[in-house]
Amino acid sequence: MSSDPGLSAPRYAPTPYRVGFLLIDNFTLIALATALEPLRMANQLAATELYTWKLLSVDGAVVRASDGLAVMPDEGTGGDNRFDLVIVVAGIDVFHSVSSEEVAWLQRQARLQVRLGAVCTGAYVLARAGLLDGYSCSAHWECLEAIQEQFPRVHTNNRLFTLQQDRMTCTGGTVPMHMMLSFLARRHGRELSTAVSHMFVCDRVREESDSQPVPMLPRLASSQPRLAEVAQLMEANIEEPIKLGELAALAGFSRRQLERLFLKHLGCTPSRYYLRVRLNRARRLLKQTSCSIVEIASLCGFVSATHFSRCYRKTMGRAPRQERLEICSQTLAGQALTDGTQLPSASREALWRASAESTYGTCEQPVGSG
What whole-number distance in Å separates Cα of residue 186 and Cα of residue 207? Predict the structure, then answer.
């Protein structure tokens, strides 16, 4: 049990626990909903106001979600409201969406000894504010590498969520609900937490120690666990790639067996798969960090920038430098798109907002019209 007062409160405290959700432009609605709804349900099941909450933005103005929908906060951060917990809700393109005003406000909350949390890519915002230095941190896999490279004093991990002292961070999707269920269990006991999970038809509450899955491997984990183990070793050893013979031996295969399994289940050789893993990481670093192409080549295990550029162009269809230039052009196009002269549909705006993401256009399956 943590010594933090937010986790050692009486079963039902006499005054509500005040939670603020700071919405960063391009935040994901599912992360907000799955973090907030357990608090609402806890109040309902306890038949008392255990929690209050407010949606916040710096100026109190509308914030756009990643799907293009406009959300009106309850107030701006300039109000005189005090919070026990502030959770940063972020989403796509967090590297450009966060503002210096948001960072400064979070730093003031920390000085007031407010407990701080983050969902999805919100951990990047706390890290940028210097508020995760020395802490363990969970974040969506898409921004973990950016945090690792830009903020070396933050102890990143691949767990679904992390509750440590006066910080709580988690990955995205529905995981915020599991983090909040754990938070409720620590404050009020398992009975209430379990009742909340039953109301949401959640038949398995995931634990803090659970790891977020490697994006490429969901179907392999159950059907080919040893092959998935090899792929995970590849994901974990990018800067200094492991030789294929050693990978095979670690998983209990011969090199020839490993090659046959990769061809059968993944449609490519192990070396081709490993190259794709390294290039996917390079793509994320190109889009999410200011690291030079030479630095990225080294971080992704290439002997030279020239070799890296040649491999990247052949596999990704464009040069690394062109990838960087496209981000700049998308930013300029976005300014024109949102200057009030055009009002695109929510779906079209959401697609534009996602265009700078490292996963944009990476689905290799044909997209049907049905």
Answer: 13
Q: With beta carbons less than 8 A apart as the criterion, state whether 81 and 52 touch.
A: no
Percent of the chain with pLDDT over 70: 80
| Phi, psi for 71 (deg, rounded to 5) | -120, 125
Q: Give Cβ neighbours of residue 184 (< 8 Å, ≥ 6 apart).
A: 38, 42, 192, 193, 196
Helix (H, G, I), strand (E, B), or coil: what is residue 40? helix
pLDDT, one tens digit per residue, over 88-140 is 999 988 988 999 999 999 999 999 999 999 999 999 999 999 999 999 999 98
CB 159 within 8 A of CB 178: no
Residue pLDDT, tens place only, 27-65? 999 999 999 999 999 999 888 889 999 999 999 999 999
Q: Please give the sequence-ordered ranges of beta strands (E in DSSP) within the chain, or none if there are none.
A: 17-23, 51-57, 63-64, 70-71, 75-76, 85-89, 115-119, 136-137, 155-156, 161-164, 167-170
CA distance 74 to 94: 22
Strand, helix or coil for residue 168: strand
Count of CB atoms situated within 10 Å of the CB of 141: 17
Whether the Cβ atoms of residue 154 and residue 135 lie closer than 8 Å to each other: yes
Query: If you search the block for the tokens 């977020």, which residue do you land on?
Result: 212
As to burial, measured by CB atoms within 10 angstroms (0-12 exposed, 13-18 middle, 19+ buried), residue 38 is: buried
Neighbours of 114 (CB within 10 A): 19
DSSP string, 344-358: --HHHHHHHHHTTST
- CA 137 from chain centre, in angstroms, equals 11
